[in-house]
Design brief:
Layout: H1 2-25, E1 29-40, E2 44-55, H2 58-78, E3 86-88, E4 92-95, E5 112-122, H3 130-146, E6 149-151, E7 154-155, E8 164-165, E9 167-170, H4 175-200, E10 204-212, E11 234-235, E12 241-253
């Protein structure tokens, strides 16, 4: 009996909290969607390359590609690139000569492609001199191309609004910049809310909540190399990496 009474009390508390939250969400409020943006000079560059091998047999294509990858690793080490500055995505298998997908009923593939993407991270003083940086990157692309690697044309942003490039620039630690962008977004929202309140003939009493809007996404048919890296903000410009945020600010009023 005591156990049943205890469980009943817990259920009533949970229901009460749920009802209170529902009431809070139904309170009249003015909601404003706002954006903030700050820019910073990049302190990290990423060069995108890929290694591909094709053969009638998947095992042969894999063996060929593993040999090419090892040659690239050895060359990058000889050029002074440390292991923590080079990342390989791992081998991916796909029908030969196609986009990576075989649809039933179509012409069957006659072989296999094995690809392995490589990401090379550049940072330090060379990013302070654009001419020096471009010279190093062009030399790197030439060296790796001779060994069988190809430039990987990558969409700079996940919604493909920043164009494509073999090189992307980013900021290693954007936390301070994000705070600035959030503050800017909140400040941008208030004049809009005041204007709405004036038309409604009400008075804003405070900020009820601030919610981050999820980043716009476009469903991509094939995997993007951007999924392999951990950096969120990318640009094609060394001088300007945009840090963008979008918020929904809810204002209470009377």
């Amino acid at each position: 009996m005591r156990r049943s009474f205890f469980l009943l009390c817990i259920a009533l508390v949970v229901l009460g909290v749920g009802a209170l939250q529902a009431q809070e969400s139904q309170k009249p409020a003015i909601s404003v969607t706002s954006a903030g943006k700050v820019t910073a000079k990049a302190d990290l560059a990423i060069v995108f390359m890929t290694v591909r091998s094709t053969s009638p047999l998947a095992a042969d294509a894999l063996e060929q590609n593993n040999k090419k990858v090892q040659v690239l690793k050895d060359r990058l080490t000889a050029l002074g690139y440390k292991e923590d500055k080079v990342k390989f995505s791992g081998n991916r298998f796909a029908p030969a000569g196609g986009p990576g997908i075989f649809y039933g009923g179509g012409q069957r593939p006659t072989g296999f492609d094995v690809t392995n993407s490589v990401f090379i991270y550049l940072e330090g003083p060379e990013l302070n001199d654009l001419q020096q940086f471009n010279t190093r990157v062009s030399g790197l692309l030439d060296e790796l191309s001779k060994l069988g690697a190809s430039p990987l044309d990558t969409p700079i942003s996940r919604i493909s609004m920043g164009g494509s490039s073999v090189v992307a620039f980013t900021v290693k630690d954007p936390s301070v910049l994000e705070k600035q962008a959030y503050q800017q977004a909140i400040e941008n929202a208030r004049p809009i809310a005041d204007d709405i309140a004036r038309h409604m003939k009400v008075q804003i009493t405070g900020v009820e909540s601030v919610t981050t809007r999820p980043e716009a996404q476009i469903q991509e048919q094939y995997a993007s190399p951007l999924e392999e890296i951990t950096y969120r903000y990318l640009a094609s410009s060394l001088e300007e990496v945009p840090i963008r945020v979008s918020l929904v600010v809810r204002y209470s009023y009377k």
